[in-house]
Amino acid sequence: MESQSILERLGILADAAKYDASCASSGTSSRNSLGSKGIGSTEGMGICHAYAPDGRCISLLKILLTNHCVFDCHYCINRKSSNVRRARFTPQEVADLTLSFYRRNYIEGLFLSSGIVKSSNRTMEQLIEAARILREEHDFRGYIHLKTIPEADPELVHQAGLYADRVSINVELPTDSGLTRLAPDKNARQIEDAMGRTKDDIAEASDAKRKFRHAPRFAPAGQSTQMIVGADAATDADIVGKASRLYGSFGLRRVYYSAFSPIPDASAVLPLKRPPLIREHRLYQSDWLMRFYGYKPAEVMEAAGADGMLPLDIDPKLAWALKFRDRFPLDVNRAAREDLLRVPGLGVGAVDRILAARRHRTLRLDDVARLTQSIAKVRPFLCTVDWRPTTLTDRADLRALLAPKQEQLELFAA
Ligand code: SF4
Prior knowledge:
Helix 2 packs across helix 3 (120-138) and helix 7 (236-250) packs across helix 8 (277-292). Helices cover 41% and strands 8% of the residues. Strand 5 (223-229), helix 7 (236-250) and strand 6 form a beta-alpha-beta unit. The protein has 414 residues and is of the alpha/beta class. The protein has a six-stranded parallel β-sheet with strand order 1-2-3-4-5-6. The chain has a two-stranded parallel sheet with strand order 7-8. The chain binds iron/sulfur cluster. Iron/sulfur cluster is lined by residues 69, 71, 73, 76, 78-79, 115-116, 183. Pfam families: Radical_SAM (PF04055). It comes from Pelagerythrobacter rhizovicinus. InterPro entries: Aldolase_TIM, DNA_rSAM_put, Elp3/MiaA/NifB-like_rSAM, Endo/Exo/Phosphatase_dom_1, rSAM, rSAM_sf, RuvA_2-like.
């Protein structure tokens, strides 16, 4: 390993980190070094942002400290028994790389995770040290997301939150039985305990910050987690249920879903095929429905089939509306905001534009068309002064009419 150049190690450890979806730089406090000493900013001026369609942020330096690992999670390319090339950075090297990428304006911050070397505590100490060097020695004010290790000492996990904008602990699998089978060294209880302590630390720090201006920050962008989709038999209903419980119990900012991808030398207990990527996309859409559209988890699951799986050909909001056609059409001039949010094709922005516009005049179908992106999609579910879809919502082929064409699905399947 000594003979590997920094560039070679960067290639290995950036590639090894790509399986982790749980990075996004949204939601942290605004901070920059303008007019003060120090370096960095979380505001992103002059920094190139790139987001994948599911919201993954790709403008962070996203690396592992090391891909050596003493654990043997079956789904992970870095597991102990995997035959991959290994590499390791020192905390100082991670800090130097972050600063040099930052100065070149390639990134807006750092996403740092790691395989477990020697012990969970030892690994956690190294992750913290990289963040400490950046924050204390270089006054780095850019974004830092640290992956924490639930098996590590709680005091170490706490220290990570003092340096990081966001911390995350991956629940990995949607069910405890899946975790036991595929990640035998991990423990669902330990993971949730660590999330619970982090939630308390975040709440305490934000309380203190309200009272004392100089109170230490603790993960101001909150905590997030990731679930792997399709590596075990968990259904979409299991996944939606788990996500909703995590949001409710631990105040998570985000749950990320990552479609399992088969890895070289895969363990025999894993499926041979990856799940369709569109499944991951549908889960993100259902997550969106719960967080921004007022759907309860049980309602999202009403959109699923008897097998607990969301349809792949249409989005969960449309699937729900087609199942509950008796709730439509809605009068666009009178319906409540929470009902309008249930109309397929109406996003939060469009609903707010409709509410603002109807304060001044009675809306016609043309008005709605101007305020929305797809009048064809919303038309069967709405009525206006000049439009009433008398039989449209009853048509047996409505689903086929509204489902995106196959070519469009390919966009997501790429
Ligand atoms: S702990 Fe498991 S998931 Fe994490 S790097 Fe090691 S083998 Fe991979």
